[in-house]
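Check my protein:
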Amino acid sequence: MSAKKILAIINAEIHTIAQKEPIQGSILVEDGKIAAVGQVEIPAEADIIDAAGAAVYPGFIDPHTHLGVSEQGMGWEGRDYNEITDPVTSQLRALDAINPMEDGFREAREAGITTVMVAPGSANILGGSTAVLKTGGGLLHQRVIKENAGMKAALGENPKRVYSGQKRIPSTRMGSAALLREALVNAQNYMHKIKRAGEDPEKMPPRDLKNEALIPVLKKEVPLRMHAHRADDIATAIRIAREFDIDMTLEHASEAHLILDRVVESGFSAIVGPSMGTPGKIETQNKTLEAVKILSEAGVTVALTTDHPVLDIYQLLHAAAAVVRETGMDEYQVLRLITINAARILGVDNRVGSIEVGKDADLVIFRGHPFDYLSTVMYTIIDGDIVYPPEA
């Protein structure tokens, strides 16, 4: 029987996120889980990190990226996020295209980002299932927290740009909405056929991976993760979600603040961003950091995203700092956007997003405040193992 692996971080200012004010003390980690926080008796056999003068935070989370499916520094060889041969590709799985050795994962670890959602791109109305994984810590299958974290969907400019060029549907927003409804109806019909077949294999319909992939959406086991920037696209997405009684998250949500009452009434969460930089297309002309504050103050569960590689993954902290600077939001509330809020939207808050007993020991130790560009990451820890610096 192997010995229990124990790590102790001592003399630390601990920002648990579970509470606003930091506490002074230690964090005890046993076999990759947080075993104790605060005034802790340190076992003699523990490996020690002395965090005197430093601060510990839960590992940061980017809930919408294309890490590993859009590989940095490559052309078509590493471009695996959009299957632009069919506007409905619900049968695809991001997990099948992730390269865990892609350089963006290293940059994430260096910035203290320990969990990400990886999604297909937004060229298709339905792009495939998303996955939540750690940014380090072993082989790909060992990093996965949630193999199916939702079905990527998209409305707006991207699908109609791609397929109007192919002179096929969707070339309009009408076509996009129609294809989404059609796919959901097909999946409903497929599900009903399976139910009617019961235990009789002769009545069972032929297996259909496109429709099969949408059954968890129809059963509300996973949400649609809806790429939508413009207010009218967001409204259409909400309307369709209500028609089919499905759950949804609003991804990017650049104009969600312009239809605030509708978004609040929907109860859907919003992953906002990337909000920094020059608007790259018509549908992002009204993007603003103020949207984060407006939505948050209205009671919407909000998280931030880089949409890596649109922004480099390490700029998640820059975006969070910009929200504080430009909107005056409280630093603690903004920290929640990239920790526990993101974890809740991804459905993994039982494991990550805060420093609490029983959760995964995903931690980042900072010299300085994370929102200060002069601050440095001393250590990034995933499942109790130091993953940055690599020689530690």
About this structure: The domain at 60-352 is CATH 3.20.20.140 (TIM Barrel). The first helix runs from residue 103 to 110. The longest strand covers residues 6-14. The chain has eleven helices and 18 strands.
